[in-house]
TrEMBL record:
GO molecular function: diguanylate cyclase activity
SMART domains: FHA (SM00240), GGDEF (SM00267)
SUPFAM superfamilies named among the record's database cross-references: Nucleotide cyclase, SMAD/FHA domain
GGDEF domain boundaries: 174-305
Catalytic reaction list: 2 GTP = 3',3'-c-di-GMP + 2 diphosphate
PROSITE patterns: FHA_DOMAIN, GGDEF
Domain FHA: 56-106
Pfam families from the UniProt entry: FHA, GGDEF
EC nos: 2.7.7.65
Protein name stated in the entry: diguanylate cyclase
Catalytic EC class: transferase
Amino acid sequence: MARATRVITAADLTRTEVSEQSMDRPSGHLVNASLIYIYPKSFQSGQRYVIGSTPVTLGRGSECKLSIPDTSVSRFHSRVEIGADGRHHVTDLGSTNGTFVNNTRTTEGPLADGDYLRVGNCIFRYLSGGNVEAEYHEEIYRLTVLDPLTGVFNRRYLMEILNREVARSVRYRRPLAVALFGIDFFKVVNDTHGHIAGDMTLRELAARVSGLIRTDEVFARYGGEEFAVVMTETARERAAAFGERIRAAVEAIPFTFEAQTYPVTVSVGIGTTDGAEPTTPEEILRRADELLYQAKRLGRNRVVV
């Protein structure tokens, strides 16, 4: 069933229902410029806020045109408006947790089509291209297959791929491996540096590991601080070597959030099959999960196959 599109204008952002016919449309290329709610996942996910030429204040306060009921957001957090250069600019309003564009903290600066705008712990995507409608529907599709925080595939897509690849492995008796890895002492990162730092750690880790992934592999967020990689045509030894590359890449460079530097390591468990015996996606994930927790019990920051 096609998902209904609910469009909200800046003037009506705090209303429950909006009539699309009553919108005041600015002229020019910013006529449909919008913010799409990406994260955290909630009933608002995929919600589109048309901002156009009207200044929009984002914050937790009910007085804000874009009211965000999240404790990480200040009462009056930031403002988006058209600058002298004819582009939308975002200005931080002295918020507690900061305003970020593409993970870089900013006090004031322009927004470009496709930018990610984070206020507190909440992430929006800014769209202002020549075909915002098409971009919006593409973004909605992305939300069905990608994890909104890290940008890698989500668990739902992982299971679809794993079902297909396990069936292929058994049918043709070809090797298949799944690496499951999790951040060591992730709770300490959250407790010491804050949950926003924790989210940024997940994003940075995903970016590092993405650089190691081949085109025929699938990298996904499995849940919480755990990630998975599906490796087709990959036997045990080669999978172990890849798991070590992941572990080393994460450990090599300390993570940084707002001038705070801290080490991060991962434990890796790898489930494998040669395709000779029937198996299921659940079984290969169970094996990988058991080996991941064995790696943690053995001292963490290691690979177990």
